[in-house]
Amino acid sequence: xxxxxxxxxxxxxxxxxxxxxxxxxxxxxxxxxxxxxxxxxxxxxxxxxxxxxxxxxxxxxxxxxxxxxxxxxxxxxxxxxxxxxxxxxxxxxxxxxxxxxxxxxxxxxxxxxxxxxxxxxxxxxxxxxxxxxxxxxxxxxxxxxxxxxxxxxxxxxxxxxxxxxxxxxxxxxxxxxxxxxxxxxxxxxxxxxxxxxxxxxxxxxxxxxxxxxxxxxxxxxxxxxxxxxxxxxxxxxxxxxxxxxxxxxxxxxxxxxxxxxxxxxxxxxxxxxxxxxxxxxxxxxxxxxxxxxxxxxxxxxxxxxxxxxxxxxxxxxxxxxxxxxxxxxxxxxxxxxxxxxxxxxxxxxxxxxxxxxxxxxxxxxxxxxxxxxxxxxxxxxxxxxxxxxxxxxxxxxxxxxxxxxxxxxxxxxxxxxxxxxxxxxxxxxxxxxxxxxxxxxxxxxxxxxxxxxxxxxxxxxxxxxxxxxxxxxxxxxxxxxxxxxxxxxxxxxxxxxxxxxxxxxxxxxxxxxxxxxxxxxxxxxxxxxxxxxxxxxxxxxxxxxxxxxxxxxxxxxxxxxxxxxxxxxxxxxxxxxxxxxxxxxxxxxxxxxxxxxxxxxxxxxxxxxxxxxxxxxxxxxxxxxxxxxxxxxxxxxxxxxxxxxxxxxxxxxxxxxxxxxxxxxxxxxxxxxxxxxxx
Length: 679
Ligand code: ADP
Ligand code: MG
What we know:
seven-stranded parallel sheet; Rossmann fold; binds adenosine-5'-diphosphate; seven-stranded mixed sheet; binds magnesium ion; single chain; 4 domains; globular; 40% helix; CATH 2.40.50.140; alpha/beta
């Protein structure tokens, strides 16, 4: 791989600037593709300009003036044989004033707008032209850049890179020809220097074959690295754990309900994985309330029955505590020893738990992040279960897995569904199980959107519900900018509710409370001693109190879609009809309105996740920290869905039949990705 420093023409400062863009090799530069294009191949007569067009014109400056009111601006009037137009600059240097003086002959490129005196261009790009007018032969690319690096610098650097002729084809011709895609070299040339007759719209919306070729290459590199990762994992050793004959059947027999078809299916999938001699990496997806915990319970018992320890990690103390209670209740009749570990335990409790885990006496360890700390030594960890896995980073999941020797199996659970295109791409190295039905006794939650102006009615409604024996959550607004303010708001709301409802027992939970306080409040709410729980979004994950059937969410417009869906999932867990009221502040923005509409209209977590993905894009939806895979730069999972399918179906064949092509391809596309950190 050629480094830039080895090539004539790349100065030190240029190299430093390119580094800022993540570019350090010729290949990186070749793959630094334009954001958009401008058409400088023709000159438009001023008379023919149309509103909204981006166009290039050429003429003489017939008037130039710097005005100071209402604010400083440079006004220039440009004339050609057909007419005149105004050019306006709000920020400018003295050198520009000189270059745009009366009598200068210039070429200007910009967007035609309505101005005070007819058409105008604001901040057009200008350059002076000599007597003969030469227009560009190709469309001009505009690149993503960084401060200190001009478009001209980047264009020059890319021209140098293309000149290196490092454009060898990585793939066998049959692969791209079957897809009607051009070869790599043609594509690179065409995208950096598109011919003047190129179709600007297919060029800009990236549906041109040359764009599709590069999108395909990128998707393929992702598939290849994922598949290689998958294959490597199958060569690792893990304990092969036979099915549970005794404990799991006994647990299921003791339950007050029977598993849904969906639960039975995923229980079987997981059980089968555990029997394999290589590590399971399975993601269990199921909407909020679909009953993932009991599935985790059966998996845990399979391991425990054969002498392996199990770790169950949850992202919040409230949830870990709840799991601890539930498992204690389920597993007590089976005589299974459970250790409980969180960051806020007393030293004595903690040491007892650590000792139990290290000696192997504790068969199941339940806890928060505390579980993967260095001081925790398992005697024989066979299975690590991670609840609400999207709340943990890749490194954290990895740290827990490192606690076992050989590698333990890993079950990840998530109520934030991963849309199909994402699970085919970013999660392609995992096996996925889906619970796609809710237990039969559920009545769907009724969702209402209510303006904050009608708060009084809502308060009345809370009073009635609580007086009638059900319980309610009041969720305080999310204030991302300031945790202190968020806390303040929660405390204010709590005080306000207390004075509003003297007849009710009201509780407060927030993230800054001591564990014991939090536990006491949650326990009182679970036992029905508290009727109204004022809470921050700490209750978002996992909390399960079936008698709660009303939830009010304040400033719902500030929350993300998945977050709202998770919060709403805290109600509708029992047989009673449940309602979730989303209070919003008036004057909603367009996007806020669109988001609330999605939540209002849908109860299905998969549809909501897809909409969330569409609104936010995969980068924000996933976060690199979470997925451990570099984000796609060129391909778009929706637009290029067909290419994703092709890449997926081709990856295994290529790995088997063309190993050298695979290496070359990954070298070109993944040289920076480093070791793929996936769990
Ligand atoms: P989640 O998938 O959101 O983690 P939980 O595991 O907390 O859901 O389950 C939600 C509630 O549904 C719990 O009270 C659980 O005991 C109950 N539950 C689970 N499976 C069934 C079932 N098959 N029938 C009835 N209730 C069930
Ligand atoms: Mg759960």
